[in-house]
């Protein structure tokens, strides 16, 4: 297998050198070029035909978002954004993911151990991006699905990772204002989840918020698990309270989809569990526990996933009742809320 041909786009010469050193240390990656700004990058993309682009956000001449929008409209390709862990960085990175970037990394900094960890993560994300499906821009805002009775007393639990931001921007605006409560674990840093929830809230009929300790779940509300420090669970009934607890990584993540799914499994047929696009296998065991408990279980179909990792693991485990395309997912979820197990 040939190395992943990668083009680095960053206006900082020192950062370009750092990223090149990190990526070149992996024998499965070849840095084919480096561009200081988008106009040079445009010409290098035509000349070099890279597999993956790493893209800075703030650059002279044309910012990274504007360049990304053009790429996804004219020549869709896997892009990994390189951002800073700031409030502004979070907002812009979320917009980049909505526009179709596969993933993001934070700019390397800190101790030698931090740099080594950042390098391993960067290489892994670039290689994953090379295997992903590039999208031609953001999904169009879907129409509101029809709503029928019978969904009272239900709960929707969703897990997603790589590609999940774009998927959730497609799915959640289609949900009606009176839908059952929704609990979501989307893998992202602690500094990103609040901005993510606020951005979704501005575009959705449902209320979207970052989950807080002790909050009572309400219909018509989506709760995004805070990133980084805690796992999110639900205690009690469908109208129970959110519990944010510290703990070790589970399936490599905190918050973990598996932890969320297992916490709602005792509610059985009251739950609809959903696995969306993502790398790895977080959520597969939890979704199986849900299905065994009598819950409805859905996964995003392979052809609509940016990365068919988490859904694939769940399918292979026998945890998935039905695979559904992303555009059909809102209606499938609402239908599952209204029907009994086995009648999707």
TrEMBL record:
The keyword Transferase does not apply. It comes from the Bacteria. Its EC number is 3.1.1.61, 3.5.1.44. It catalyses: [protein]-L-glutamate 5-O-methyl ester + H2O = L-glutamyl-[protein] + methanol + H(+); L-glutaminyl-[protein] + H2O = L-glutamyl-[protein] + NH4(+). Residues 5-122 form the Response regulatory domain. GO terms for cellular component: cytoplasm. The active site is at 161, 187, 282. Phosphorylated by CheA. Phosphorylation of the N-terminal regulatory domain activates the methylesterase activity. Pfam families: CheB_methylest (PF01339), Response_reg (PF00072). Signal peptide: none annotated. Residues 149-340 form the CheB-type methylesterase domain. Keywords: Chemotaxis, Cytoplasm, Hydrolase, Phosphoprotein. It is found in: Cytoplasm. The modification 4-aspartylphosphate is found at residue 56. One of its GO terms (molecular function) is protein-glutamate methylesterase activity. GO terms for biological process: chemotaxis. Involved in chemotaxis. Part of a chemotaxis signal transduction system that modulates chemotaxis in response to various stimuli. Catalyzes the demethylation of specific methylglutamate residues introduced into the chemoreceptors (methyl-accepting chemotaxis proteins or MCP) by CheR. Also mediates the irreversible deamidation of specific glutamine residues to glutamic acid. Belongs to the CheB family. Contains a C-terminal catalytic domain, and an N-terminal region which modulates catalytic activity. PANTHER family: PROTEIN-GLUTAMATE METHYLESTERASE/PROTEIN-GLUTAMINE GLUTAMINASE, PROTEIN-GLUTAMATE METHYLESTERASE_PROTEIN-GLUTAMINE GLUTAMINASE. This is Protein-glutamate methylesterase/protein-glutamine glutaminase.
